[in-house]
Amino acid sequence: MSINFITVSEMQQKLALAVRTKRLHLNLSQQTLSEKSGVSCSVLKKFERTGKISLESLLMLAIVLGSMDDFKGLFAPDKPEIAASLDELMKDNTRKRGRK
């Protein structure tokens, strides 16, 4: 597990800036992006200003902006470290179910 020094609020602002930057790069107005994505213009404006948006709306924006692939590896398991022995490679340490 890595240590991260960015807050949720800072990440929201970074995402909002990235969406706005990509929107402008594609020469789309907020109104046009709103119409193409199905996300209301007021939600888009609030997102670009505050960074707050529902996951569903964010994904709808990502589809139109051509960034949906960026979400595919978001929660992928970490790559295993190099094992010290064949026995370690053969161990099945994956969890079978979560705790209640």
β-strand percent reads: under 5%
**Distance N to C terminus:** 23 Å
Q: Major sheet: size, sense and barrel closure? A: none
Q: Based on CA inertia axes, which overall geometry fits? A: elongated
Report the CATH architecture.
Orthogonal Bundle
Low-confidence stretches: none
Structural commentary:
This protein is mainly alpha-helical. It has one domain (1-92): lambda repressor-like DNA-binding domains (434 Repressor (Amino-terminal Domain), Orthogonal Bundle), CATH 1.10.260. The protein is built from five helices and no strands. The protein has helices at residues 8-25, 30-37, 41-50, 55-65, 86-90. Helix 1 crosses helix 3 (41-50) and helix 2 (30-37) crosses helix 4 (55-65). The longest helix has 18 residues, at 8-25.
Write a brief caption for the model.
With 100 residues, the chain is mainly α. The protein contains 5 helices and no strands.
Please describe the topology of this protein.
Layout: H1 8-25, H2 30-37, H3 41-50, H4 55-65, H5 86-90
Helix pairs in contact: 1-3, 2-4
